[in-house]
From TrEMBL:
Designated name of the protein: ATP-binding protein
Regions crossing the membrane: none
Database matches in SUPFAM superfamilies: ATPase domain of HSP90 chaperone/DNA topoisomerase II/histidine kinase
ATP-binding listed as a keyword: yes
Keyword Acetylation: no
Record keywords, A-Z: ATP-binding, Kinase, Nucleotide-binding, Serine/threonine-protein kinase, Transferase
GO molecular function, one term: protein serine/threonine kinase activity
Residues covered by the Histidine kinase/HSP90-like ATPase domain: 13-113
Pfam family, any one: HATPase_c_2
Length: 152
């Protein structure tokens, strides 16, 4: 008997600008369905938005694929395109007036880890990110002897 696989979801969208919002909606729906913390869901939507946008703007892809996987402690996001990969996988500092160029800085700030799976000539490029999926709820106080707040 095989062990149960952690929750995972994948989807493909056409490489056009309307797919960025569609990707965000799919991610939000899936992650809230898994019961992940709202902070994780919000950060994941931002990351997917940036990675899908980059795939659409900087490649000649006809589609963009997204994979979401959660172990309960870690959320992994992968966005794959049909391009040759980024010319550099290092965040750069954009000029104050620049309209773009901050996506990898945002990714670097939000993700616990991220990287690029080296593309080959046939399969395109995959950028991945991992976020903490641990609960962000505030622990409730434990009162001694079942009593409420106040002197013990």
């Amino acid at each position: 008997m095989r062990p149960a696989q952690p929750p995972g979801e994948s989807f493909a969208l056409p490489a056009r600008d309307t797919s960025v919002a569609a990707a965000r909606r799919r991610v939000r729906h899936q992650l809230y369905g898994w019961g992940l913390p709202s902070t994780t869901c919000d950060n994941a939507q931002l990351i997917v938005s940036e990675l899908v946008t980059n795939a659409i703007l900087h490649t000649q892809s006809s589609q963009v694929r997204c994979l979401l996987w959660s172990s309960g402690q870690v959320l992994r996001i992968e966005v794959a395109d049909e391009g040759s990969g980024p010319s550099h996988g290092v965040p750069r500092v954009a000029d104050a007036d620049a309209e773009n160029g901050r996506g990898l800085l945002l990714l670097d700030a939000l993700a616990a880890r991220w990287g690029v799976i080296s593309p080959d000539h046939w399969s395109g490029c995959t950028v991945w990110a991992e976020l903490s999926a641990a609960c962000d709820r505030v622990p409730q106080p434990r009162w001694r002897n079942g009593a409420g707040p106040g002197p013990a």
